[in-house]
Amino acid sequence: MFRLYELLLYLAFMLAFPWFLITGVLRGKYLSNFGPRFGFYKGNPSRHDLWVHAVSVGEVLAARPILQRVLEARPDTTVVVTTTTISGQTLARSLFPSATVTYFPFDFSFAVRSFLHRYSPSTFAIMETEIWPNVSRLAAQRGVRMLLANGRISDRSLRHYRPFRHFLSRVLSSYSVILARDPVDRERFIAIGAPADHVEVSGNVKFDLERQPRPLAIRPGLERLIAGRKVFVAGSTVEGEDELLIVELPALIRELECFVVLAPRKPERFELVAGLLAASTIPFIRRSELEMTGRPEGRKHDLLLLDSIGELAAIYELASAAFVGGSLVSSGGHNPIEPAAAGVPVCFGPHMTNFREIAASFVQEEAAVEVGGLEELVGFVRRMLTDEEVNRSISQRARRTVERNRGAADLTARRILELLP
After folding, report:
1. Is 378 helix (H, G, I), strand (E, B) or coil?
2. Rg of the Cα trace of the chain?
3. In 10 A of CB 372, how many CB atoms?
4. Buried b (16+ CB within 10 A) or exposed e, 252-265
5. Closest to 85 measured CA to CA, from 112, 105, 103
6. How far apart are CA 317 and CA 315, in angstroms?
7. 387 vs 323, 380, 384, 392, 404, CA distance in Å?
8. Cα-Cα-Cα-Cα dihedral of 348, 353, 357, 359, to 10°?
């Protein structure tokens, strides 16, 4: 079965390679990391106690409190962190300066073997539900103890995984511990073949989000830009949302005399969104330009385009209202915990399938608002920026909801420490 899987993987890669090549040339993606992803590394092999894989920005942020607790308990632990995306790589290098940071290998046997030989991890912790058969099989063969953290199975994934239960049971049996976010996810892991005695409920690590240890570098300049105005942050927006918001924002800015921060989720959209803003009537400045201009004049700009990685959480602290993107369109949503932990009233659209239990917790506690579309989103912002009592009430409930759900990072770190040699 593993041979058939690898054959299909090769075929899929060959079919996708032209797309990788074109995207790499046009957008500067993929090609720069093909070397390490195929298992080609510089330097001599070295041993590491712990390998942590975090796909992208969200998973890297979720891994931070876990690694902090592990290193507090065992400061001499050597760590290699892998990511899949360029943005995740950039953030990981910033957050984990003492760790080795590189790219996750493609799931070809030769690439995985090369990675395991180069970094020789003793324990492997993978964030979220990244089920890679060859990584799991080959790591287990080398005696690597493995843990899946913050695991979730979406409705869509469950439908796709069920037909391959027999194969997946062999993969998931390689893991000593599978930590599921909630009881529903635990039952779903068991349904696709995970041994029941290997799966436990941990809660969601993302509730353990901690503030950035370093101050926001652009905060003084940004506060001069804001010039006392209330701030609306549209964070982690995706294609289809930026376009809608940019049409609506001029009227909202005029009516409420507010300042807006627009933060596209993917770096490859920074230029495109900047072009959309340039064609609009909104006076805006890019975060990259803000650093160069030094002391921008207040009220000269009404919007900041956040074309950077890793600063959104700190910017939420300046907001009076926030929208979490990827949720007005069918993109699965993004994490609303960051603004909620900062005490910011937050709304999101109806498409929160990737964060269903988090969204449900906030809505149930009246600690966030689900909006059905752009009109309701604008109404939410208008209310949060004009009704201080309602704003304060939602803010307090948001903080309490985050506090009540903390603890998953502690449990995950304990399980990792139990697996470390």
Report:
1. helix
2. 22
3. 10
4. bbeebebbbbbbbb
5. 103
6. 5
7. 17, 10, 6, 9, 26
8. 0
Q: Quick one: tokens of 220?
A: 């003084």
What pLDDT score does 113 carry? 98
State the DSSP string of 276-339: HHHTSS--EEEHHHHHHHSSPPTTS-SEEE--SSS-HHHHHTT-SEEEESSTTTTS-----HHH
Half-sphere exposure of 305 (CA within 13 A, CB side): 24
In this predicted structure, the answer to whether residue 339 has a pLDDT above a threshold of 70 is yes
Residues with Cβ within 8 Å of residue 19, at least 6 apart in sequence: none
Q: Distance between CA 253 and CA 122 in Å, rounded?
A: 54
Taking 90 as the threshold, does the pLDDT of residue 59 lie above it? yes
**Residue 49 has what pLDDT?**
98
**Span 108-122, pLDDT tens digits:** 999 999 999 999 999
Is 272 a residue whose pLDDT tops 90?
A: yes
Of residues 417, 421, 415, 50, the one with CA closest to residue 202: 415
The residue type at 312: L
Pairing of strands 346-348, 321-324: parallel
Around Cβ 400, how many Cβ atoms within 10 Å? 13
Bridge partners, residue 231, by sequence? 259
Mean pLDDT of the chain: 93
d(CA 352, CA 85): 22
Residue 59 annotated as catalytic: yes
Does the structure show a pLDDT above 60 at 213?
A: no
What is the rounded CA–CA span in Å between residue 322 and residue 345? 6
CA dihedral 3, 149, 87, 368 (to 10 degrees): 130
Structure tokens at 352: 């929160």
User: Within a 13 Å sphere around the CA of 144, how many CA atoms are in the beta-carbon half?
Assistant: 30
Q: Is the whole model's pTM more than 0.90, yes or no?
A: no
DSSP-derived 3-state class of residue 228: coil
What are the backbone dihedrals phi and psi of residue 371, each rounded to the nearest 5 degrees, phi first? Answer: -105, 145
| Strands (E) located in 17-169 | 48-53, 79-83, 100-103, 121-127, 145-151
Task: Tell me which of 59, 128, 317, 338 is the catalytic residue.
Answer: 59
Q: Are strands 177-180 and 145-151 parallel, antiparallel or unpaired?
A: parallel
* Cα gap 3→155, rounded to integer Å: 28
